[in-house]
Specification:
GO terms for molecular function: peptidase activity. The protein is α+β, with helices and mostly antiparallel strands and about 250 residues long. It contains seven helices and six strands; from the N terminus they run ββαβαβββααααα.
Amino acid sequence: MTTVRLPLFPLNSVLFPGLVLPLNVFEERYRAMMRELLKVPDDEQRQFAVVAIRDGREVAPSAPGLPDQTSQPEQGPAAGFGDDPLKAFHEVGCVADAATIREREDGGFEVLATGTTRVRLLSVDASGPYLVGELETLDEQPGEEAGALAEGVLRAFRSYQKRLAGARERSLSTSAELPDEPSVVSYLVAAAAVLDTPTKQELLEAPDTAARLRAELKLLRAETAIIRNLPSLPATELTRGTTSLN
């Protein structure tokens, strides 16, 4: 078992390998993380781990709240994640490689990172200015019939895109413009489909590529059928992703 220690960046969303993650960093705990990452030499990877939040708040409260308006908000690296941060996060996350970390005049940061490798969260250290996790790296196994499944998922994804966006067939990307490597297909579709965070987390945790593709094929067919039968659904709005506040 190969383990690493990396800063943790919890989000209300799931990061997949190969996908780009823009971040607007303004909380002090994450500012401290970025300042530390900037100390890493330019020729080395500036990495942190993204984990989806199971129970907690992505942004810690900064003012007294309900029901007691006099209560003071939590402070520190684990603010918003309870007494045991390990229980607040999903077990499987993704390492992010920060290609760009740009500090703003207000002290915040604009970060552009890319997901690289799946990891399993083993423990959380909250003793420093930001959370640090001990993580086990997870290999991606192809599974059985991954290639054929990838082809089926791409066809289903095209039909899903067409229904979701209301586009004409000729306006969709050609097969040459989409990846054909099964694991890349599985992560791209998982990230692009309009699914809730628990469902995306299940796809990230799939035991192998083939299992993820099988699950996606089932989901895409079901979602396409739902959209087909709900013509009043404002599908074009669903395609617009949001950037995390952090």
